[in-house]
DNA sequence: TTAAGTGCAAAGAATTTGCAAGTTG
DNA sequence: CAACTTGCAAATTCTTTGCACTTAA
């Protein structure tokens, strides 16, 4: 955990960005909520505990910066809000998501299920794949049991 | 083409929605731009040729209705705008997209590449898959040649 | 006839921007 | 110090809503 913060700090410095308390607090919040898919507003409210003076605009600017540095991925599940999802340490690809249409829960899938599919895309469509977004919409285990 | 309009009309009627000239014009625009990924604003401008009095709000309402009827799918490629993509006739699943990060072009992939992946998700995660979204980000054939 | 649909303008929500003041390296 | 950052409020952008009027079935 400490290491990850250190790494991110180094990344900022290496691109001659400054490490402000606001940025540090934002990164901490993201690390502490690794499983969640927080909106900018969510992050804002959580960061306020650590840095009460922070403004929402700064949170937006920081999240944009972290997206650019590939520390987080910006995703959109179809409601009107962008969400920010921490990249796994050393993960080559963005992980996948299962969104339950009943309860709205979001589950992450770590393992790469797209290896073969990507090869097909690369060869058949001559498309040089850099990243992907895969989301399944359906009914989660919990809600399946509920509706029986 | 005629058939598809007829089909969509029937779908509207069967749910006791009315077939207004505005709705008909909107559907026509979508059919005429099947390969595109139009935003509500895009659709609005195009529909105005056929039905000049139409308001943007009506376009939004129509697109929402067509989404509900599964005539179109609402997608979001990460810019702040929702786009509307006509479902292929009889397609069981939503098709996939290749988004070029250089030129912004969007290519559609018809064939279902996710059959096996979906089985894994269903069995391993006990998730009842209803639909999916798969988008690859990368460099299209065209842009690969350009940068050489 | 009448429930459903429309256009317009106003309201809302999410995000971005301008700028003076404050900080980091 | 100088360039980068911040907070605030105002501005934008996309989308939704209220309401009086119109229209398809």
Automatic annotation (TrEMBL), chains A, B:
The keyword Zinc applies. Pfam families: FUR (PF01475). InterPro entries: FUR, Fur_C, WH-like_DNA-bd_sf, WH_DNA-bd_sf. Keywords: DNA-binding, Repressor, Transcription, Transcription regulation, Zinc. Belongs to the Fur family. It comes from the Bacteria. This is Ferric iron uptake transcriptional regulator. PANTHER family: FERRIC UPTAKE REGULATION PROTEIN, ZINC UPTAKE REGULATION PROTEIN.
């Amino acid at each position: 955990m400490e290491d990850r913060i250190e790494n991110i700090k180094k990344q900022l410095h290496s691109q001659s960005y400054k490490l402000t308390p606001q940025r540090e607090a934002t990164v901490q919040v993201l690390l502490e909520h690794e499983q969640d898919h927080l909106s900018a507003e969510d992050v804002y409210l959580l960061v306020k505990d650590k840095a009460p003076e922070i403004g929402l605009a700064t949170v937006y600017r920081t999240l944009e910066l972290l997206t650019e540095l590939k520390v987080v991925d910006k995703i959109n599940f179809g409601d009107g809000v962008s969400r920010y999802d921490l990249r796994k340490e050393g993960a080559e690809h963005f992980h996948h998501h299962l969104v339950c249409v009943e309860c709205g829960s979001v589950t992450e899938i770590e393992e790469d299920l797209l290896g073969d599919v990507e090869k097909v895309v690369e060869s058949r469509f001559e498309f040089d794949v850099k990243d992907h977004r895969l989301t399944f919409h359906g009914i989660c285990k919990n809600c399946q049991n509920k509706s029986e």
